[in-house]
Amino acid sequence: MADKEFISIQEAIDKGEGKVAIRGWIYRERGSSKIKFIVMRDETNIIQCVIEKSKVGDEKFDVADKLQIEASMKIHGTIKEDKRAPTGYEINVDDFEVVGPCDTFPISKDQSPEFLLDNRHLWIRSRKMVATMKIRSTIIGAIHKFFREKGYIEFDPPIFQPTQSEGGSTVFKVDYFGDTTYLAQTWQFYAEAAIFALGKIYDVSPTFRAERSKTSRHLTEFWMAEMEAAWMNLHSVTEIAKEEIRFIIKEVLKHHQKELELLKRDTKILEHYAEAEYPTITYKEALKILKEKYNMDVQWGKDLRTIEEEKLADHFKVPVVVTHYPVETMAFYKPEDPKEPGTALCFDMIAPEGYCEIVGGSQRSTDVEDMIKRLKAMGEDPKNYEWYFDLRKYGSVPHSGYGVGVERVIAWICGLENIKDAIGFPRTMLRKTP
Fold this sequence. Notes:
BirA Bifunctional Protein, domain 2, single chain, alpha+beta, CATH 2.40.50.140, 2 domains, 5-stranded mixed barrel, elongated, 8-stranded mixed sheet
């Protein structure tokens, strides 16, 4: 049968009756000496196929009888509705072809998360992973759609960068023809250069942090969706972030009801997140809520831990933006608010249900002397940042930006227990294969 005659399993189900030709992989199989039930899968859905010895003959049936899960096949037959079948339809097989036989598949039920990670090249075929990767694709597409519709220009940064930007202890060093460079922690410095040419820009690119963390919320290689815009202050940039997150959720709800159901995600709560207003509070107000509502006494200047972020987000039941963290704990490019001395013009967005920080950003400093002083306090050589300081010497303007942790947003929207399942092949402190 010609390739053009094959249709996807979902297209066959949508057709509902008549002759069809499909191809895919065996998802489940069982049978007797006279009949074989094979549940086939492809990237669109699953469907039960019935192979009868009386129809295909003894020799062909013997082939079918020996098939194991994950063997690849081409099948043609007649589809009809059958409510007893897994997806409500069944194909009565006229003929089939085994394309790729399969040995005993190493993945079965109730295997450990580590085993599944060791065999990610095979586990990625699972229905849960397929659903998550489809949603991931839509989320990344939604980010592009959101910014392009608002007139932002996509701008790609270098991955090799000469200086650290988020913390020297979390950079990956790379041998660069006998010299040393670093893998990108963020696009920010290069984005700040580009806004003086392009005005409003965004990007989705890989990011690398050598954080010695083994939690379910950290990856050493992840994707960041970042934006930067000239003439934008802290309030404006936080409102863009809120709008972006709501837009992403709406796109997922529009395209992935079936996948969300498979992941057992409560779509009602996602609908609420997509429509609700997200509050903005200051770090000072956050400490007050934690003290008065949860008897959690956080000392001024301490970063909010996961448990404290969880309480704040659950207090509001929607994502919450926290601004004005203590300036002494912030990166050198996050400026002090002249109206609120001791606090920085920065923000985090914290997601509910225990997913915590999903967005981080700030207004950017235009005070070179202050940045030099803060770099020296960090033990950094300001000379390494002279090109960055040039941006303040030649027509500087107020500007702001933020980064969205793509995998964190995916994990939250999909209701995943571990961020490792939000990316095809995760990289962590303890895992660099397969």
